[in-house]
Amino acid sequence: MLTLHKLELFVYVAQAGSISKAADHFLMSQPNVSQHIQDLEAEFGEQLLIRKHRGVELTPAGETLLQYAQEIFRLVAEARLAITDVSRLSGGNLALAATPGVGIYVLPECVEQFRMRYPQFTVSIKTGVTAEVITFLIASQCEAGFIEGELDGIRLPPHFGVLVLDTVQQYVVISHAHPWWNATSLSIQALDDQPVILRQIGSQSRAWLDKFLKSHGVRLRHVGEFDNPETIKRALLAGNAFAILPAYVVRHEVDLGVLRLLPVNDCDLQRQLKLIWNKDWPLSPITYAFLRHLATDYPSVHALLDSSAPRQPHRGRV
């Protein structure tokens, strides 16, 4: 029998190119997934997948079924979005992904405000470097990804949308022990050959900073590399190096007077806060509601909401 569950399994196998990945995702055994695919092949009388040593490939019939199945699930998702009143749902989950700084310092406040309005929902935020956030989106482990920075060198699927939410100023951050503590601003050349604490190689933050400083002929003396901003802050408090961070990362320490922000006065040290999502897949009602809440602080989200609003069905004569 043809069911939505069987089609959902088929779509995941087709997109992942792997029965084992589908089994892991749906918490099923591989033989069970294979049986559902075989049921579909018997239903249509056509082979849908070619089993290979490493994964599977779609046959022409499989390609055709994938297109129809994706359209079916788009319509189901649109219907759910058009009809559902999230305030009346008894439960649900909001799944997000973000780069470390955004996930730790930007989203939690927005999420808690959202949960105060909808306490019946749970929220999960996966954190990782930009490439990992994209991977989470591709694997449908989240519906919305938030990153701070650039997408240089990142293979973004063509059906993914990118929306700039805000411009984020970057600052030189120092502790009281640093000789620049009494300065009010710095030139970019003042950073040359100074001890600095950086994000790890492989992060977009590190790639952006290395490229930016190289373009200004500035070489830094690396004394530490860490994979999250909390560790960087602790290292700053313990020594006399500096780091380059957005203000939201050190807001609490600046208020306490233990860290200080210094602007660079002769160049634009800025990055962008971006939202990434799958344009081909309608947002779930809970994610749509969260983005509508987010639009209060980031008005550019309204453009995404307008484009994601469900279409009105064609009403023919009965």
Which parts are unreliable, with pLDDT below 50 for 5 consecutive residues or more?
none
Distance between the termini: 29 Å
* Count of spatially separate domains: 3
Number of helices: 11
Overall number of strands: 11
CATH level 4 superfamily of the largest domain: Periplasmic binding protein-like II
Q: How much of the polypeptide forms β-strand, as a percent range?
A: 15-25%
Gyration radius, rounded: 24 Å
Shape: elongated
CATH architecture classification of the largest domain: 3-Layer(aba) Sandwich
- The CATH topology of the largest domain corresponds to D-Maltodextrin-Binding Protein, domain 2
What is the CATH class of the largest domain? Alpha Beta
Helix proportion range: 40-55%
What's the helix-strand series?
A: HHHEEHEHEHEEEHEHEHEEHH
For this structure, the quaternary state is: single chain
Average of per-residue pLDDT values: 91
Largest sheet, in brief, is: 7 strands, mixed
Would you tell me the structural class of the helices and strands? alpha/beta
Family: Belongs to the LysR transcriptional regulatory family.
Keywords: DNA-binding, Transcription, Transcription regulation
GO molecular function, one term: transcription cis-regulatory region binding
Organism: Roseiflexus castenholzii (strain DSM 13941 / HLO8)
Chain-wise SSE layout:
Elements: H1 4-16, H2 19-26, H3 30-44, E1 49-51, E2 56-58, H4 60-83, E3 92-98, H5 100-117, E4 121-127, H6 130-138, E5 144-148, E6 160-175, E7 195-199, H7 204-215, E8 221-226, H8 229-238, E9 243-246, H9 251-256, E10 259-262, E11 270-278, H10 285-294, H11 301-308
Parallel strand pairs: 3-4, 3-5, 7-8
Antiparallel strand pairs: 1-2, 5-11, 6-9, 6-10, 6-11
